[in-house]
Amino acid sequence: MHIKWCTSCYGFLDLPFYNVSLTWDKRVDDLVSRLTIPEMVGQMSRGSGGTFPIPRLGIKPYAFYSECLRGDVKQPATPFPEALGLAAAFSTDVIYNVARATGIELRALNTMFSNNGSYNNGQGLSCFSPVINIMRDPRWGRNDETYGEDPYFTGVYAAAFVQGLQGNHPRYLLTNAGCKHFDAYGGPETDPMSRMEFNAVVTMRDWRTTFFPAFRACVKAGTYNIMCSYNSVNGIPACAHKQLLTDILREEWGFKGYVVSDEGAIENIISRHHYLNNTIDTIAACIDAGCNLELEPHSSLNIYSSIAQAVAAGRVEESRLRELMKPMWYTRMRLGEFDPPEMNPYKEYNVSVVQSPEHRQLALDSAMKTFVLLKNQNSFLPLNGSHFSKMAVIGPMADNPDAQTGDYSSPLD
User: Fold this and answer.
1) What averages of pLDDT result for each successive group of 10 residues across the chain (413 residues)?
2) What share of residues in the chain are helix, strand, coil (percent, to 5)?
3) Three-state secondary structure call for residue 336
4) Is 262 noted as a catalytic residue in this protein?
5) Residues 183, 262, 339, 407: which is the catalytic one?
6) Measured between alpha carbons, how far apart are the two ends of the chain, in Å?
């Protein structure tokens, strides 16, 4: 069966990558074979701002940038408890249900924006969540985004979160998960240096027993993307670390998805790590390592926008670009972008599910399960009601309602 339909107001298309009777691999191969180098650059360099459209193939822009750690961070969707609180529930059912509800609301919002023509407004279906770094230093400002310090527990939670976000349909993804930040991240914010540039010196034993287990669990659970981190690992920036991104992640663990840089991490290879000193060498190193997509900084020109020059200089093979493109297009296909909408049951979700009574109740129930009670042994704290009548809330977040909700919460409405 060969289906033809108008997919994007660019006309009726009759191309194999739209043919739902072909295998995913054949469809991806066909699509990638049709791309020019500038078109590939417009995809690989636009992880943050939204990819460029390809009108001649009827391909719309796509926003890879969505944060889904505890609800949709961009829209006034249902706000769920932060990750560290959810960890205190010690329940994979809680984390799965929160991820599932988050994915449903993200899908509904995506459909709404697609229908009103604002597809490339940042409301994509590809999540940079969950955060599964191991919490080792209280000076790191992102500890509340993690599930704590235990590698096994973090891996169990990561798998449940991935499965909840991605759904269980045999053909389509609800949304796609992305585990971050790979790897050995989570050091102090600024002391002795910025987390954007520090070098994590890690023994292989510690790497494999502390930092790898949760990411490997994430891969086993079927995550579609992994984010490489800002830091260096044993002297090599993570997004240019071939041993990390290819030898271990892909060849040893069998990861088939795409690797995206943290925002500005590729630029930092030059400006902060001083590992390399020019754009072409940096592109060559990251492409060789296996970084598919740059999450470019908003403040300056991104590095991957110069991929064509690296190809022209003989530093990057065109065939290598096409191979790195495939996992990104495969993901978009599994999200249903190139199939008739009526085939995908997830496209039936509408905005009625956003902040629905069921999801609000789930948020409340989940929050109740995050409470941790402490025993006042030997009356160590003066908590008898006769000793005080008022309580003071002090500190930099005492009167900051935005900060009180924690990192990556949905915006207050």
Assistant:
1) 40 81 97 98 92 93 91 90 95 98 95 66 81 90 92 98 97 98 86 84 95 98 98 97 98 98 96 96 98 84 94 98 98 96 94 96 97 88 72 85 80 67
2) 45, 10, 50
3) coil
4) yes
5) 262
6) 47
The CA distance from 122 to 135, in Å, is 29
Closest by CA to 114, choosing from 5, 12, 7, is 7
Q: What is the pLDDT of residue 385?
A: 64
In contact, 179 and 166? CB cutoff 8 Å: no
Q: Enter the pTM of the model.
A: 0.92
Token couple for 316: 């990057």
- CB neighbours of 235 closer than 8 A, spacing ≥ 6? 199
Is the bond into 181 cis (omega within 30 degrees of 0)?
Answer: yes
Which one is the CATH code of 5-365: 3.40.1280.10, 3.20.20.300, 3.40.50.12710, 3.90.1150.10?
3.20.20.300
Q: Are 306 and 280 in contact (CB under 8 A)?
A: yes
Q: Where are the domains of the chain?
A: 5-365
Alpha carbon separation from 328 to 53, 64, 94, 180 (Å, rounded): 14, 9, 30, 17
Residue 190 pLDDT: 74
Assess contact for 28 and 326: CB atoms under 8 A: yes
Sign of CA dihedral 259, 264, 267, 270: negative
Cα 218 off chain centre by: 12
For 221, the token pair is 């659970």
**409 in Cβ contact with 82 (< 8 Å):** yes
Query: What DSSP string runs through 222-272?
Result: T-SEEEEPSSEETTEEGGG-HIIIIIIIIIIT---SEEEE-TTHHHHHHHT
Task: Tell me the DSSP string of 138-197.
Answer: TT-TTGGGS--S-HHHHHHHHHHHHHHHH---SS--SSB-EEEEETT----SSSSS-TTT
Residues 6+ apart with CB under 8 A from 114: none
